[in-house]
Amino acid sequence: MTAHAAPTPGPTPDAGTQPLLDVRDLNAFYGQSHVLHGVNLHVNPGEVVSLIGRNGAGKTTTLKSIMGVLRSRTGQITLGGHDITRLPSHRVAARGVAWVPEERAILATLSVKENLELPPARRGGWSTERTYEAFPVLRERGHHPGSKLSGGEQQMLATLRVLRSAPTLLLLDEPSEGLAPVIVQAIGRMIETLRAEGMSILLVEQNLNFATRLADRHYVFVDGEIVDELSRAEAHTRRGDLLNHLSV
Ligand SMILES: Nc1ncnc2c1ncn2[C@@H]1O[C@H](COP(=O)(O)OP(=O)(O)OP(=O)(O)O)[C@@H](O)[C@H]1O
Question: 33: Cβ below 6 Å to ligand 1?
């Protein structure tokens, strides 16, 4: 940690507010390779929080660790005060965590509608009809193979389909990556809609404009550590620092 800028004291949860997600002293490993070093972060109910950092800094590994996809880790992860550290990923999902991976995981041989209806529907989750109303292109392409959608349409499908399961926490890995500005704006509006409905979101992003427009707080990752935590206002006044952390 000493090699990097010292973390500034960032905003902490309001007194009396229990974080929805609380990650303590997370260390993660790929075989012998130790890639996360004592990560501490939290997401409050209804908050949008971003993880910012260069390629390879450990952002995706953090999401995989929370989701229980990467099992080789130490530390503690709680959701709504319950320890989920040792739960397999399907049980983490059943507790209300939904992960939209960077590669979007659209099944090419299934139709758009079949892809949409893959996650288990739960009470309070989005119906197929509601999804079509939110993004009518999916209705128009309902019977096309998933592979025929554009990158932006795939991102919309990948994000909207997990809402069927009525998650309380959404883990979004680089939703704007490789997409045209108009679809990035549409994804931004969707995230704002979900926030307005009370969803908590942990967002991995390298698009600084996108992240700073949407997120209430930001954690900066360098080499598997969090080296800074910024409020929404600080992300604007200290934009130069953030750009330095993202430049190669
Ligand atoms: N399956 C894997 N096996 C071994 N090492 C891995 C694996 N996945 C990631 N790593 C390594 O772990 C470190 C953190 O990677 P991670 O994918 O979490 O970074 P990131 O910040 O999400 O960046 P990116 O945007 O490139 O995915 C990197 O050094 C990466 O090379």
Answer: yes
ipTM reported for the complex, 2 dp: 0.95
pLDDT tens, residue by residue, 222-244: 999 999 999 999 999 999 988 88
- Residue nearest atom 13 of ligand 1, based on CA coordinates: 56
With respect to residue 189, please indicate whether it lies within any of the assigned structural domains: no
> How many structural domains comprise the chain?
2
Radius of gyration of the chain (CA): 18
Is 25 domain-assigned? yes
Alpha helix (H) residue ranges in 163-231 = 181-196, 208-214
Structure confidence by residue, pLDDT tens digits, 188-221: 998 999 999 999 999 999 899 999 999 999 999 9
**Which residues are paired to 221 by β-bridges?**
226
What the block records as the tokens of 107 is 């099944």
Q: Could you tell me the residue range of the domain that residue 58 belongs to?
A: 18-96+168-178+199-248
pTM of the model: 0.90
Q: How far does the centroid of ligand 1 lie from the alpha carbon of residue 105, in Å?
A: 18
Helix (H) or strand (E) holding 59: helix 59-67
Verify whether ligand 1 is closer than 6 Å to residue 179 (CB atom).
no
CA of 61 to the centre of ligand 1 (A): 6
Is there a domain that residue 91 lies in? yes
Ligand 1: centre distance to CA 208 (Å) = 20
